[in-house]
Amino acid sequence: MIAIGLMSGTSLDGVDAVLVRIRPRKRTYAVDVLNFVTVPFEETLLQRIRAALPPNGGTVAEVAELHHDIGVAFAQAARLAESDMPIDYIASHGQTMWHAGDRHITLQIGDPFVIREAAQSTVCYDFRSADCAAGGHGAPLVPYVDALLLASDEEDRVAVNIGGIANLTVIPKGAGPYDVTAFDSGPGNMLIDAFVRSRTGGEMTFDRDGRLAAAGTVHRTALDSMLADSYFALEPPKSTGRERFGAQFLAEHAAQLDALSLEDGAATLTALTAHTLAPAIAANAPAGAHVLVSGGGVHNHTLMAALQERLPQLRVERSDVMDVHGDAKEAIAFALLGYETLRGRAANVPRVTGARRPVPLGSIAPYDLLSLLAKVEAECRR
């Protein structure tokens, strides 16, 4: 099966589009990455998305227009990821506009029918709503795929993704998808990006390679104030997003952060990610586990060094060492979740999301669906 996975996360870096070949292997899959691109949002569209996201509030008309225009952006990204091979289906996560997992409410937009018309392929989409309807947070969903891609009979592993939000999946030796423990630990890159963008008037949008943080000094009082947020003390299942750790979080701590230099602020917010993610890993991972990191945070050398320093008994590396593309992993994950949608198989993990039961995820915008389902059935019989 040739598929495209589409993903845009809370960092708003753009649309990740990955072209993959997927082959069912009993309970798991073999996946080959054939192409991967990240397509930045056009600046005007990016500003409109930000204006509609918390703590701002977009009108119904604005969200409806964004639904269409983000669909166009996703379709363009899919086109750039294509090769000369026919695409069997596309799986699109969409762009999260609102997430209140504890109230079982989540919204991702990016019109799948716009994508379908552009690609002339079936599109699987809206993966989170089914878990919410079953009493779950609708997140995190990638842990199911983490187990498929990274489980080992030889060692315990922890899959970590540092996007706008940081999350982890503990995968014990020999674990299946329903044996993992996973949750959002708190902010990943989101606060660092927002601080840098605000302080530089948009001239810089992130801390490239962690250089600003490396040149700064952590302000302990500011760090302790942020660490007192009640989210960090919650027990899983838990998930979070921009609604809690967006620009309003920086505003709540402005008394300390505004007094810091650009470098010291970046260092302090980088320390916040490390001081919340590392203890979450240490408290849940088996001794000697191998920590495999993906997402934009892998490029922040200061953050990666801080994680290793706070996890001296564990080996912290990029997921690429296990042939799982660190930048493409979440897009790959939704391509695989799309295959599970087409098979009608449950792909949430109730102990992770808090759902009452395992449920199939996703909706389908069909294009020659009968032929696609026949191909799925034939592949899965082999």
Structural class: alpha/beta
Helical percentage:
40-55%
Sheet-strand content, in percent, reads: 15-25%
Quaternary state of the chains: single chain
Radius of gyration: 20 Å
Distance between the termini: 13 Å
Q: Please, what is the average pLDDT?
A: 96
Task: Characterize the biggest β-sheet.
Answer: 7 strands, mixed
Number of helices: 16
Please provide the count of β strands.
12
Ranges with pLDDT <50 over ≥5 residues?
Answer: none
Q: Topology as H/E string?
A: EEEHHEEHEHHEEEHHHHHHHEHEHHEH
What general form does the structure show?
globular
How are the secondary structure elements laid out?
Layout: E1 2-8, E2 15-25, E3 28-39, H1 43-52, H2 60-81, E4 89-100, E5 105-109, H3 112-119, E6 122-125, H4 129-133, H5 142-150, E7 157-162, E8 165-171, E9 181-187, H6 190-199, H7 211-215, H8 220-227, H9 242-245, H10 247-252, H11 254-257, H12 262-284, E10 290-294, H13 301-310, E11 315-318, H14 329-343, H15 350-353, E12 363-365, H16 369-381
Parallel strand pairs: 1-4, 4-6, 7-10, 10-11
Antiparallel strand pairs: 1-2, 2-3, 4-5, 6-12, 7-8, 8-9
Annotation keywords:
five-stranded mixed sheet; 382 residues; globular; alpha/beta
Question: Your description of this structure?
Answer:
There is one protein chain. Helices cover 41% and strands 22% of the residues. With 382 residues, it is α/β, with parallel strands linked by helices. The strands form 2 sheets. Strands 1, 2, 3, 4, 5, 6 and 12 form a 7-stranded mixed β-sheet that branches. A 5-stranded mixed β-sheet has the order 9-8-7-10-11, with helices on both faces. Helix 2 (60-81) packs parallel to helix 3 (112-119), helix 8 packs across helix 12 and helix 12 packs across helix 13. The model has no long low-confidence stretch (mean pLDDT 96).
